[in-house]
Amino acid sequence: MSALLKRSFLLAAGPLLTLVSACESQRPKYEGPYAAEVAEAVPMIEKAVGLKYKTPPKVETRSNEQVREFVIKQLTDSLATHDIDGQEAAYKRLGMIPDTLKLKPFLTSLLEEQIVGYYDPHTKVLYVVDGAPKDMASMTITHELVHALQDQYISLDSVQKIRDDNDRLSAAQSVFEGQAVYEQISIMLGGSNIAINLPGGWDRIREMIRENQASMPIFAAAPKVIQETLIFPYLSGAEFYRNYKERKSGSIIYKDMPVSTEQIIHPAAFFGTRDNPTRVTLGTLANATKVYENDLGEFETRLFLYQQLNDQNEAVRGASGWDGDRYAVVNTPQGQGIVWLTVWDSPVEGGEFFHLAGQAVEARYSTKVASGSTELVKKYSGGGRTIQISTMEIQGRPVVIYADVPAGANPNIINPAQVTLSQ
Q1: What is the extent of the structural domain holding 51?
Q2: Using one digit for the tens of pLDDT, what is the confidence trace for 95-109?
């Protein structure tokens, strides 16, 4: 979902983390609010992560109104507004959020509902909301202190500023949140193996997080893409980090970060022969003016298929073999549309996506393939829209081009000769 949502949640903790309780023991005192909790957590985090704090972490409290001001500031600066508007348009055109949803006010309410505390890499301070329940505040502090330690070894502020690369930002967020979740739970278990010593292992963690989130009314009412992209870095990120600790014991993950959700989802893509995504440059567009561009990545490509097909296995199968993508929200003389180019590992996998994307269009618009379609180009009409899905080779690579434009507009917006594919 929105990279803005990812940036805002990257360092914020709330009900997602109501899984564990802090241990009790005597530790050196720190100044400020929650000094005892900080003193308790710091040495355990240093031992778990294998790094020392370069400077003591700072913790302050914030009122609910101050938290709201922080959230609004995150969502209303000029770059944030550009991202939110562009991604709202993209996800509406892909059928992943309702046309009636106003994304900015919804995200503001969602963030307010979720945040118990957050680490701000700009001020280098961990903030806890006034009046937060003691147990939840203690858990949040442990989690956010991991972010404070991360920030002393890799600039979280610079990571948050990744532009127009939603997939890479998702991968980075998965490392930071996954490490914080994993180490938080590991500390609760005395540093032991979570999968072995926590009843139910990761399946139980998934179930507990989803149960906790379902109790939050705004989250529960959110579109599937928002729910799933919110949970993904905590769960899949923690599983990735567990793999990293087992396979690269003693290594510092910040020196070798994954760059795609494909690498988070599929261990072989990161720990085996490294499978970095193909970078797509769409080049000069025809018959339309570009308004915004970004990428989805493998995980959100799955969500695109699942949204319409409502079949998890088919969605996973259809997104398997993803190797890069790029979309552009465009204005045509008839109105707004979207074009989306995906690159695939093989013609077979590209063909699977081509087929299932067509099924998704048919389900969404209650339509069938229109006359004039071929084995390589499928055309559809429905809901006042023209949709065209094409499969071809560009620079020897199998690609699928998806276009959804107003009826009467020319869907041939991407010129294959203008597209550049690179590593």
Answers
A1: 3-270
A2: 999 999 999 999 999
Q: 83 and 29, same structural domain?
A: yes
Residue with tokens 């309780």: 21
Same domain, 153 and 29: yes
Cβ contact 288:331 at 8 Å: yes
Contact 169, 158 (CB under 8 A): no
* Residues 126 and 205 grouped into a single domain: yes
Alpha helices in 126-252 (DSSP H): 134-151, 156-160, 166-188, 194-197, 201-214, 217-220, 224-247
| Residue at 385: amino acid letter | R
Q: 61 - beta bridge partners?
A: 128
Verify that 113 and 200 share a domain, yes or no: yes
- Residue with the two structure tokens 């989690």: 143
Is the predicted pLDDT of residue 88 greater than 70, yes or no? yes
Beta strands in 80-140 (DSSP E): 117-120, 125-129
**β-bridge partners, 342:** 325, 400
Distance CA 260, CA 246 (A): 20
- The predicted model gives 244-261 an average pLDDT of 94
pTM of the prediction?
0.91
Instruction: Give the chain's domain count.
Output: 2
**One-letter amino acid of 44:** M
**172 versus 160: which is more confidently predicted?**
172
The verdict on 70 and 199 lying in the same domain is yes
Instruction: Answer whether 5's CB lies under 8 Å from 103's CB.
Output: no
How many CB atoms are closer than 10 A to CB 37?
A: 22
SS (H, E, C) 353-401: HHHHHHHHHHHHHCCCCCCCCCCCEEEEEECCEEEEEEEEEECCEEEEE
Calpha distance 238→217 (Å, rounded)? 25
- For residue 58, the one-letter residue type is K
Compute the distance between CA of residue 396 and CA of residue 253 in angstroms, rounded to an integer. Answer: 34
Could you tell me the two tokens for 379? 């055309």
Pair (260, 321) in one structural domain: no
Binned at pLDDT 50, 70 and 90, residue 138 comes out as confident
